[in-house]
Amino acid sequence: QICNQHNAEAPNLEQAFRRMAQTEPNLDHDVSWFILPSYWAKMVVALISFLCFANSYDGDFVFDDSEAIINNKDLRAETPLGDLWHHDFWGSKLSSNTSHKSYRPLTVLTFRINYLFAGGFYPVGFHVINIILHCTISVLMVDVFSILLGGLQFSNKGRRLNLAPKTSLLAALLFAVHPVHTECVAGIVGRADLLCALFFLLSFLGYCKAFRESKYKEGHNFSVFWVLVSVILGAIAMLCKEQGITILGLNAVFDALVINKLNVLEFIQRLLHKDKSLENAGLLKKGLLFRITLLMSGGASILYIRWRIMGTGPPAFTEVDNPASFADSLFVRAINYNYYYSLNACLLLCPWWLCFDWSMGCIPLIKSVGDWRIIALAALWFCLIGLICQALCSEDSHKRRILTLGLGFLIIPFLPASNLFFRVGFVIAERVIYLPSIGYCILFTYGFSLLSKQAKKKKILAVAVLGILLINVMRCALRSSQWRSEEQLFRSALSVCPLNAKVHYNVGKNLADKGNQSAAIKYYREAVRLNPKYVHAMNNLGNILKERNELQEAEELLSLAVQIQPDFAAAWMNLGIVQNSLRRFEEAEQSYWTAIKHRKKYPDCYYNLGRLYADLNRHIDALNAWRNATVLKPEHSLAWNNMIILLDNTGNLAQAEAVGREALELIPNDHSLMFSLANVLGKSQKYKESEALFLKAIKANPNAASYHGNLAVLYHRWGNLDLAKKHYEVSLKLDPMAPGTKENYNLLRRKLEQLQKKGG
């Protein structure tokens, strides 16, 4: 063991405070563990927490990162900062019926700062901030655990005494290396949980500072300022993620148990018997009721303001997100909720089977008491009831305090995710266990101290705990590497949740994005087999089959998708594309308009509608549809191009030129627009300007055969035959089968030969 000598020269009065504190049972007394000076303990915790997750620093944007960051307009500079306070975590308006009501404006603000400093969507900066946040939180846990495990004592100079240096270090290490935290650290959207935890802990430490100057004998004196600071920090935590508000309740529990040394069982008994000596039980001691009133009124005000901003409507979730919450039977709902709690407990105790998503059949519903999984929730409640009985009935006040605090930090932060107060949009989410794991670490450390007290060979027990820490470090590193890319993340879930349709869907989508359509089809089919109502899998599978010209099956899948979900706009549009390919134009037009009915701002659908009208020679309707697409999405290059080409082909060169110039003002670096406008200018005999645009387009895309071929035609018309010959040859080299180019080249050669003969 390393001796702690850093307080050797402390004043006698401080030593007296330590002796007074040590008259209570001390967890460190029987524990065989390292003693390090506070600074070094924090350095060790920071280093180890960094090593666990360092390999995630250069990971990609994965899973929910796409929606929360890449597709979130609130990150971009052109979006007013004020919009962050009226939008949810995903950038949707809180007033929208489709909003998940996850109100986390401060987290989104940090994403926006990341984006601005990086100059774009570069994930390294986002990941580095997450790692730094987890390291900072783990360091703060050393102080938090020293208070929760050792009690709150100050020297005469207002310096807090660490009365449990061994066990607080152990608990902080357990927290720092817990593999269940990987999703929060390696997944960028986990920033919400990290920021929430940071201000959660600062709120707790701030509340403890309220008693720094007073020596708080029986809680008579305290600093109102620090109590209010604690409330404000709790509000900031909630603006990072909803769980943050629970710290106000935990501060009240801590005040009653640690500051006022309340015996909960004794208080309940006196309350039931209407004993007038309640003041002696501790609750009515001077200052406690006032502090709790401050905390509760602050919490109520925060919740009311959030409720007003969010609106009165609950978030809209579907059955696949949380099937138990849609069960008709109260019994089935209760049994499955409790089973979910037991699975969360298992993830804390044995975090080996981790998955990015636990919905969509990953955990089949328990529908009868004959299901063997009932054993899991029976075991959970057996353990909880045992711990609660010990926390209430033990004659050892020290034991009562630690067990109650451990259970409080385990259960209270988990309540918003428990389905007790409102339906949540998941079955199990590893990220929501980040804060409850504090309670787990307290209970584990206390259990370790009890075993150490009984064990004859304490060093063997310490080695076993070191082994657990080492295994967790390796598991964190492995899991972090899986979070570095979507392919690894999704494939890692196949063995954990083989019945989860969303896992197969995501593996298929990842393969399709990489161009491996054959393999993607296999996983999409499995997703539909596991969940026959999985409309997104049907839509994506239908898209691939459409591209492979398997139109009949594509139509069947897409028709089924819109039958299951009639407002699924993307499926209606894709169904229209298939019907157009089958030359069923009236049905296609109807499908496109149905898609637009369900999604008013749908530029891609207007674009496809324009293509349909162009095929039917309804040129005015086509131009109007494409114009609508560009109004809704000014950077819609394909719609601009089609307008220019249609106007060019119908002889409206002046209008085509005007549209082309308008398009290039909005998208100045689009080489396809440069090419289309250059063709129009060439036909209008504006050769110089046309040449400049062709050359600019070729510079941006030098391997486009058509660019060289059309520039050669321009030179041919212009009479610059040598340059025409050069670009014809480049075009034919890039694409020997380029339509018309070979014929034009042969015409040019014959003309050059004739000129040579005349010159000879």
TrEMBL record:
Signal peptide: none
Membrane-crossing residue ranges in chain numbering: 39-57, 131-151, 188-208, 220-239, 245-268, 288-307, 374-393, 405-426, 432-451, 460-478
An annotated GO BP: endoplasmic reticulum unfolded protein response
Keywords: Endoplasmic reticulum, Membrane, Repeat, TPR repeat, Transferase, Transmembrane, Transmembrane helix
Pathways involved: Protein modification; protein glycosylation
Compartments, record wording: Endoplasmic reticulum; Membrane
Record flagged with keyword Repeat: yes
Pfam families, alphabetized: TMTC_DUF1736, TPR_16, TPR_19
Class of this enzyme: transferase
GO molecular function, one term: dolichyl-phosphate-mannose-protein mannosyltransferase activity
E.C. designation(s): 2.4.1.109
UniProt xrefs under InterPro entries: O-mannosyl-transferase_TMTC, TMTC_DUF1736, TPR-like_helical_dom_sf, TPR_rpt
TPR repeats: 501-534, 535-568, 603-636, 705-738
Domain DUF1736 intervals: 313-385
Gene3D superfamilies, A to Z: Tetratricopeptide repeat domain
GO cellular component: endoplasmic reticulum; membrane
Main localization (coarse): endoplasmic reticulum
PANTHER family: PROTEIN O-MANNOSYL-TRANSFERASE TMTC4, PTHR44227
Similarity comment: Belongs to the TMTC family.
Name of this chain's protein: dolichyl-phosphate-mannose--protein mannosyltransferase
Gene name of the encoded protein: Tmtc4
